[in-house]
Design a protein that fits this description.
By secondary structure, this protein is of the alpha/beta class. Among the domains are: about 1-155, Neutral Protease Domain 2 (Neutral Protease, domain 2), CATH 1.10.390; about 160-245, Immunoglobulin-like, CATH 2.60.40. The protein is built from 26 helices and nine strands. The strands form three sheets. It has a four-stranded mixed sheet. A three-stranded antiparallel sheet has the order 6-5-8, with no helix packed on it. Helix 2 (about 25-40) packs across helix 4, helix 8 (about 250-260) runs parallel beside helix 10 (about 290-295) and helix 12 (about 330-335) packs across helix 26.
């Protein structure tokens, strides 16, 4: 927040947008520069990579919807406004990857000096950045930054790069298409900087994939003799582009092999994107789950928090669906075996005494492994959580480390008795800080007792118990509980009139989102559609369509790819045990 106010002295106050229609460009630049400034203040933290990765995961999820809105489109709710700023922040990171931070700073200084105490347009900003890049010989003459940015600002979504290697003539052909959950008419394209490296040449090289408006279907590039047929090729080095990458199966196999045998040859941020792409492409049916399981298999060698951050994000997405199916027992084997979770947990347990730590790698990695191990019912983790909880109850001076506290509380409530829930309730009643109250509410929502979850739902709209800003967190936590889903559904349906009186449309959408995110059956989806059409006729069609689309994607996955995942897990487990 402080970094953002500091940046706005130049970007927004010294130079402001020429119109409200372009103010969001300045907001996106402010968001990006704030991340970079915060990283400079904490140079060893890796804050910029962590924050940009978080944004990348969220934007790629939301912007893959068929009804996503172009950046220059008019947002109709707060989520679209947030998405627009976040996506533009990632596009500034793409520009930075092409021209470098120093040249970008030079261009920005020239822009602020030229338009000081004036207004400016987005085109004028792109021109100053382009001129600085030209002077530094970092932007080819055939590349016009205004055209590049127009291809990203004027259309919704983001590209899927399809990488096909011809192992006989030693060429790599890259084509592009929009990444969406459904097939859409049209053939959009983007100007994309293609940064690649190979097994024998790990120095990043760059080419441009063009976008010909007159013939977008011809938007392709062929790279010749960049690697030997027995080597891997990696696209989007350092993950600076907003894209997904689909390789041919042979190249996936080569990447999988190097991840398993020489992990550090692939940069950490690219390992994170490989895991994310493999699981999401398998989710869409574009990649066999057997390939995705192979990529997950290397996690036993992985200690970087970027990668585990992505892995747990995707595994929990699957977990939300799988916990309500008969295949849940098989799914848990994947989670335990994929990264040799028990060994990693025991190492994490030994290092947990070092928390809190200024080292973001340790500060993030230890809680991720602990959370993964406990929530997927690793016996050693459940036992350790109970011991930590009991020790803290008997001796309050024995504080549970930051990062582990929510997981420890959750396990104590889930596998304990009524007493553990009541102890957290009493602690909640005397706690004033929002962050600690959030932790306690989420932990109490781990209960498998109906009375406890119904009590929390009663609290959710009682401003004497739960503040408005914590209501969404609480409802989401209860809904993600396999026992709580039906209770949240019943409560929302019975209290929709009260909710409409208390919240505006954006607030109602956020509340319903906590429920929609857990829907995975046609029966629940059709029932929810009927409920919305009957009770919320004034909510925008775009927002409701997005709700239905996200839920439909989960329902389709359960119907068409659920068994593919189970089969791949069985094969993976047999290979692991063998």
């Amino acid at each position: 927040m402080v970094a953002e106010y500091f940046v706005r002295q130049w970007n927004g106050i010294l130079v402001s947008a020429s119109s409200w229609a372009e103010a969001w460009i300045f907001d996106g630049l402010t968001a990006y520069l704030s991340i970079q400034l915060a990283n400079q203040l904490m140079p060893l933290s890796g804050y910029n990579q962590t924050r940009l990765l978080d944004l990348n995961l969220w934007v790629k999820q939301e912007d893959s919807m068929a009804h996503a809105v172009a950046l220059k489109g008019l947002p109709t709710n707060k989520q679209q406004e947030s998405l627009r700023v976040s996506k533009l922040c990632l596009l500034f990171n793409m520009i930075n990857s092409v021209i470098g931070l120093k040249v970008m700073e030079t261009g920005l200084k020239a822009f602020w000096l030229k338009y000081a105490n004036k207004t400016a347009t987005g085109m004028q900003l792109w021109t100053e950045l382009q001129d600085a890049a030209r002077r530094a010989h970092l932007l080819p003459r055939g590349i016009d930054l205004n055209h590049v940015m127009d291809s990203w600002l004027n259309q919704q979504g983001y590209p899927l790069l399809v990488v096909n290697r011809n192992y006989e003539d030693n060429t790599v052909t890259i084509t592009q298409q929009r990444y969406t959950a459904v097939t859409l008419p049209g053939n959009p394209c983007w100007w994309i900087p293609i940064t690649y490296m190979t097994q024998s040449d790990r120095t990043p090289h760059q080419e441009w994939l063009s976008c010909d408006d007159a013939a977008p279907q011809l938007s392709a590039i062929t790279l010749k003799n960049i690697s030997r047929p027995d080597e891997w090729v990696l696209i989007n080095v350092n993950g600076s582009n907003l894209q997904r990458t689909l390789y041919d199966l042979k190249n996936w196999a080569k990447l999988n092999q190097i991840l398993s045998t020489a992990t550090e040859q692939i940069p950490p941020i690219n390992r994170a994107h490989l895991v994310d792409d493999a699981l999401n492409l398998a989710w869409q049916g574009m990649l066999p789950y057997s390939v995705a399981m192979g990529i997950l298999g290397y996690l036993s060698n992985e200690t970087n928090h970027y990668v585990w951050q992505v892995a747990i994000h995707n595994l929990e997405k699957l977990h939300t669906i799988m916990q309500t199916t008969t295949g849940y027992r098989i799914f848990r084997q994947l989670e335990k075996n994929a990264g040799k979770l028990e060994k990693k947990f025991l190492r994490t347990k030994e290092n947990s005494s070092l928390l809190p730590s200024p080292d973001i790698q340790m500060y993030t990695f230890i809680p991720i492994i602990y959370r993964l191990a406990c929530h997927f019912q690793l016996a050693a983790c459940v036992k350790d959580a109970a011991e930590r909880f009991n020790a803290a109850v008997l001796d309050p001076s024995k504080e549970i480390p930051d990062g582990l506290r929510e997981t420890v509380y959750c396990m104590a409530v889930r596998y304990g008795m009524e007493l553990e829930w009541l102890l957290l309730r009493d602690k909640y009643n005397v706690t004033e800080t929002i962050s600690e109250r959030r932790i306690l509410l989420r932990a109490m929502a781990c209960s498998v007792d109906h009375w406890a979850l119904e009590k929390l739902l009663q609290w959710s709209f009682d401003r004497g118990k739960v503040s408005k800003m914590l209501t969404i967190d609480l409802l989401s936590a209860v809904a993600h509980n396999s026992v709580g889903f039906i209770l949240v559904k019943k409560y929302l349906y019975n209290h929709i009139d009260d909710i409409k009186r208390m919240y505006d449309n954006d607030g109602i959408l956020e509340i319903l989102q906590s429920f929609v995110n857990v829907i995975s059956t046609w029966e629940d989806l059709e029932d929810f559609k009927d409920f919305v059409q009957e009770n919320l006729p004034r909510i925008s069609n775009y927002s409701i369509t997005n709700f239905f689309e996200a839920a439909t994607a989960k329902v389709d996955w359960r119907q068409y790819r659920y068994y593919d995942l189970l089969k791949a897990i069985r094969e993976f487990t047999i290979a692991y045990l063998g």
